[in-house]
């Protein structure tokens, strides 16, 4: 059996994070390993959880998704 795809979901909207995480978790072979509500938290979570895939909201207060992606 292959390793699941490890996903980090990043969005400043709690409902968007919950919805996307629920959709992803419903698929076999996908595991949401962490969620983050800001660019700063996304950078930290990416370092800590080492996901194989990150969904990133572009427009967030503070560090936006583009800067977070650059730092990751």
What is the subunit organization of this protein? single chain
Secondary-structure element series: EHEHEH
Q: How much beta, percentage-wise? A: 15-25%
Uncertain segments: none
Note the gap between the termini.
29 Å
With helices defined by DSSP (H or I, 4 residues minimum), what is the helix count? 3
Characteristic key phrases:
72 residues, alpha/beta, three-stranded parallel β-sheet, 24% strand
Would you write up a description of this structure?
It is a single chain. This protein starts with a strand and ends with a helix. It is globular, with a radius of gyration of 12 Å. Helices cover 42% and strands 24% of the residues. β1, α1 and β2 form a beta-alpha-beta unit. The chain has 72 residues and is an alpha/beta fold. It has a three-stranded parallel sheet, with helices on both faces. The longest helix has 12 residues.
Strand and helix layout:
Elements: E1 5-10, H1 14-25, E2 30-36, H2 39-49, E3 53-56, H3 65-71
Parallel strand pairs: 1-2, 1-3
Helix pairs in contact: 2-3
Give a quick rundown of the structure.
With 72 residues, the protein is an alpha/beta fold.
